[in-house]
Design goal:
With 832 residues, this protein is α+β, with helices and mostly antiparallel strands. Helix content is 53%, strand content 19%. It is built from 22 helices and 23 strands. A 6-stranded antiparallel sheet has the order 8-7-6-11-10-9. It has a 5-stranded antiparallel sheet with strand order 2-1-5-4-3, with helices on both faces. The N and C termini lie far apart (163 Å). The chain binds adenosine-5'-diphosphate (ADP).
Amino acid sequence: MLVNAAEGARATSTLCALRTFQAARGGEGSGALPGTDPRSSTRIWSLVRRVTPFAAVAAIFALQVLTNIGPVVAFPLYLAVVLVTALQRSRLESTALALIAAVAILSWSLIVNVDVANISGAAVLGALLVGLAIGSEEMVRRSREASARAEETLSRLRDSEKTLRSALESTSVGLALADLEGRWLEVNEPLAALLGRTKATLLDTTLAAITAQPDRAELEHALALLRFGDVMHWEGELTALRQDGLAVPVSLFIARVPSVVHGEPGLLVQATDVSLRKRADALRECLGAARHVMVTSVDAERALPELVSVLRSFPDTAVALFWMLDADRQLLVSRCASPMHEARFAPFLEASRRESPAGAGLIGRAWQAGVIAVDEDVERADSTYARRGVARAVGLRSVVAFPAIYDGEVIGLVELLSEHARAPREDEVALLATLGVEIGQFVGRSRLAQALRRSEADHRAIYERSPIGIARVSSTGELLEANPALLRMLEHDGPTMRDNVWPDLLRSFDQAASRLRKAPMLAGITDGSSIQVRAATGSGKWLWLQMTATSIPDITGRPEHVLVMVEDVTTVRDTSDKLEEALTAQRDANSNLEKIDRTKSEFLSIVSHEFRTALTGIQGFSELIRDGGLDPDEVKAYGGYIFNDADRVNRLIGDMLDLDRMESGRMTMRSGAIDINEVLTEAISRAAASSVTVEFKSDLDPRLPIVAGDRDRLVQVVSNLVNNAVKYSPEGGTVTLSSRVEGETALISVTDTGIGIPADEISHVFERFRRVRSGAAQAIPGTGLGLTIVKQIVEMHGGKIWVESALGHGSSFHFTIPLAADGAVAAQLRHG
Ligand code: ADP
């Protein structure tokens, strides 16, 4: 471009020179007579021009003839005509004319004076005329050729000038020629448009005059260098001033060119509007600076002022503000502003302390809609900007507000104000939207990080200071960390805890968990239930530890590590053990009391029933006897009944007293050598005498050694068992008494074929007042004391008693009595 421009300048200077030449040639071809037909006048003119030289020669010849002037005098006249013709006419015409003129000179000499000298002189003159005519014509031809060539060059240059000029005008670059002082000589339309002027008004100014004051010195310096030829070209960026006062950043290239119009060296000036590039650069720089702040800062709260000050470098921005929501008061609060301390904007910043997020104004709208909001000119009547009054007062004209978005929510708002009415261009809107998201991410993430840091510090403090032991365990069971409380509790240092104590604890946990059918510690997310294990401390003290494990999953859900809470529950456990014992004892005591109470009630009910039954019988039969009128057999029979009833009462009282004596340890035993077979035989005889409903059998071992015991008590035992066998056997049953040696004891059995005892009652029949109250047994009277007394007596002899029974088939009561120490058999006793 520079080369082209320089060539253009050279062409222009050549053109100027040619233009002068053309002007000097004046209106060739402009000789047509006015008012005549151009074609006929041309023909006439051509004829006149052709004839005129010949007429002139004829006229000179005529003059020669008439005035008799010599050839030397006539020669210049002929020569003038021949030369003029040679200059203007063709070679043929001019040569012909010269020949005619030569003939005329020669003819006159021949006519006037036929003198050889005269004739030869005339011939020489004639030849000279012809020669000059030919020479002149040749010269003219050459000059014409040169002229044609020049004309051709001129035409080419004209075309070139046209092309150059249209190129000059059609280029978007401002181009101009200026003299060495910087005065414009030629300017193109783009330059005029760039500088906001017409070409004419621009030509009235200078390069310096359109340069903003701060850059003027630099320009003057450059011009000086170019003027003195120190540099041949200069380039730089300046701020140019348009006619309307607006500043335009311009990239200038100035080259010194050899000559311009008057052969003087000049300047070729190329100017390009770089405002778009500058704006793009500024946008990029603003974005870059904002990103730098965000990338290099951890805490958004602290970085915000710097960020806002960077945002003020957004093109054409005078004030930048950052708004945040005060959730408590439901107000938007301007958190920081730039410039902070510029008095000019102070009233505006003061008015910008808070706004309503629900407000209809620009800020509220941008906040609620979450998109960029623009007020191009707050001076317009339809402006809805809430602070328009104060904005106008401080010279702020337009506003752009864009939201900072995090996680789909507006968490802040940036407001940029300009001193000019403006609407952001598309690329600026896109950039602000991007910036909004980035700022939102920055602020949001920073808040999150801060919350995490706070939470981490809280947890760390809990971990360090917790009175509960906390262990962090890897997913493979190694102890990663143990808090001070755990180390204190188990009285170990970290390494011992990790290498020796923890593996044992883990094993104990899993064993206890397995016993309780719970998951082992590393099984995954536990239900948080606790396991109690025993563990020894470093000083050898045993503790009960309650361990609660919770798995902490990683992002894939797999347990990453396990947190185990460890509490020393030794005291609690001891107390609860003691409490449990006390409770059991209390429960037993209560149950005993209940039993005693129940027994007492049963005793009272049975005893009173027995007494009442017996007394009712006694009373009834006594009345019958008292009233008289009975025959002796009846009296005897009634007396027998009375006796039996009294006997029952007596036995009952005897049983009760016996039992009481036995249980209180007041019963004494008179021990002697007893033939138990004899006791059994007597019992059969007695029972057989009083009962005819059952059959009695005996299966006695004759070699049964004597036993050591109290005979009366053993009689009482056997009688009781035989009576029960009879009592609980239906008619036709069999009662068998047997004896044999069993180890060091005599085993005696009383077996019946009676009603038997229900299986669930068998183990209870020896209890006090225990009676079977179901089936056939319930209808048979009794006190439930007999077997209790029997058992007491057998046990007092050092023996045992038990029963085998099948309901409906009969019962077999067995008891043992230790054999007498000397091992004598009954026969020896009897006979010896
Ligand atoms: P009772 O005075 O009621 O007979 P016992 O103490 O002698 O009191 O017997 C307790 C209970 O054992 C009886 O009520 C009876 O139900 C049962 N029993 C005792 N001996 C026999 C037996 N030979 N056959 C069936 N049941 C018996």
